[in-house]
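Q: Got a minute? One more chain.
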Amino acid sequence: MMKLLDSDPENQKTAQQAVDQPVPRHDDELIHALSRFVEPIGYRIIHVEVQNSRQKSLKIFIDHQESLPGRAIGIEDCAKVSRALDEPLDTDPELQRLFHGSFELEVSSPGMDRPLRTARDFIEFSGHRVRIHTFRPLTAGECGNLAYHQKNPKQKHFLGKLLGFHQNNVEITLTQEEKKEKKKVHSKKKSKSEVNGATSQEESKSEEGRITIPLQLISKANLEPEFSFEESEERE
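A: Always. Here it is, folded:
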């Protein structure tokens, strides 16, 4: 079958921009609608999951509006949010448009692999390890690191340390050590001389793996739980 190609550069540019833009997310719209009933009682919605299997379900992850050290989401918090949403989910026109029919509602804490969705999330958890997935591979300009992009032009999954959020971009550092960290089951202790000798190499690798990711291109992001095998070995 023959395909007709549009030779107009402007039309080609517009078509490419349409491909590059992620599809508007239904869960963002749903979070916005649900937040009208959750925020007044002191909570915020971190993430939602909709399952359309035999038993349709809506799972909502919540946190406190104001984050305080040592304060976590408990069973009573989940119960309060569940009660606040019971009636609106059955009667509110906007929620009925987005999510209708019989379903099972579940309200939960964010968990160790907490989802990251907003600028506030990426700022609040700066310094933590994260796992990020993008809708498509980044361009060299979006990545902000030409050398890294040339080596990894098709990468859509990233694991590294979250540096922060700047000008609508998430900043992270990826190194070979960070990528391999999860595959290690046991780690051997290094001598002081080995550690000191590797310091300059670690710093250069860290700079090489420093990239930016536009927030609008992130399809999914979560905190990466950190487990220290060295600490458990020392306790034994």
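A: The radius of gyration is 22 Å.
Q: Perfect, thanks.
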